[in-house]
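Re: pyridoxal-5'-phosphate structure - here you go.
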Amino acid sequence: MFETSANRENSNAEKYQARERLFRTKDVLPLWVADMDIDTPTFVLDAVKKRLEHPILGYEEMPNSAFQAQINWMKKHHGLELKREEMFFSPSVLTSLNLAIQAFSNEGDEILIQTPVYPAFSSSIRNNKRTVLENPLKENNGDYSFDFEDLKEKISPKTKLLILCSPHNPVGRVWRKEELLKLAEICLKHNIKIIADEIHCDLAFTKHTPFASLSKEIAGQTITLLSPAKTFNLSGMSISTICIINEQMRKIFTSHYKAIHVGEGNTLSYVAFEAAYSHGETWVNELKKHLQENIDELDFLLREKHSKIKFKKPEATFLLWLDCRALNLNDNALNQHFIAAKVGLNTGHSFGTGGTGFMRLNIGVSKDIFKKVSKNILII
Ligand SMILES: Cc1ncc(COP(=O)(O)O)c(C=O)c1O
């Protein structure tokens, strides 16, 4: 399993198509955008093929059976209790994030993010004319943690939301229950709602704690964003969900949601979603083993070579946060250095404060591609 994967060179894959624009050359292995060079599982593809046996692709609502498949999955794998009426379809987590920002804050309000973090958090805040309030993570020799003292100092009456990345992209942390409880306590005290982006939760190698599972009170302040896209490599299907347990908050959210007619999605995505959550358990376990093998092997090779590039093994995801500070290069030169080795990565500084000197590498690839990746990275 995962020895090889389909060739995406001449498909519409964004990762490949945008290489020339981003790296000024096509001659790089594209290891940036967070989807995998791993085939989407057969049980998902089969469900899509079966749906195509019916020759009409008209308007469709997301079926309750699909929501139920995700509800069962979240309960079984993460202990999160959800009900159908608490959930909304959304074409993407970023659509959900923007809707939640609009529904639960006003222009000029402050929204907390914990950098270095997925860049679309800050751009979504700015695009909605809210203010980014950075609460950078603390870093100690590759270990990352929340900075509660900084958080408490920075909160003002204008601070309305915190966007939590859990597990965290790019630093790979799976936040422990105790850390999340401490964070929740501060947010509850200051009446700050939490948008918990848990898109990476199924790729946690250690126990993931959904923020909304911490307590009833916390669930009542939380908007959880979920998606099968990263786990089952189906980002092109445009499907995800938003979960809001608090009924009052749901009412507020619904008016924004209805206003932009985003409630109905893609006919094929519904069956892909349901198949993934209904039949995905064994596949995900195998995938996690494979990703950990890639991680372990690269770690071994870099150490063996006494490379100046270091990384802390992530607790989740196929994204490695490479510490390249020992190379002593500025951000642009660092990027060029990787391009010269024929690998195209995300630059660390694009993840905000704390990102300078780092690069994000996507090792969500089949074994054959991984061999090329490690060979090229070792040149650096
Ligand atoms: C933390 C996080 N949130 C959201 C997204 C994007 O999700 P979507 O494509 O559903 O908008 C990504 C993609 O990399 C991500 O890492």
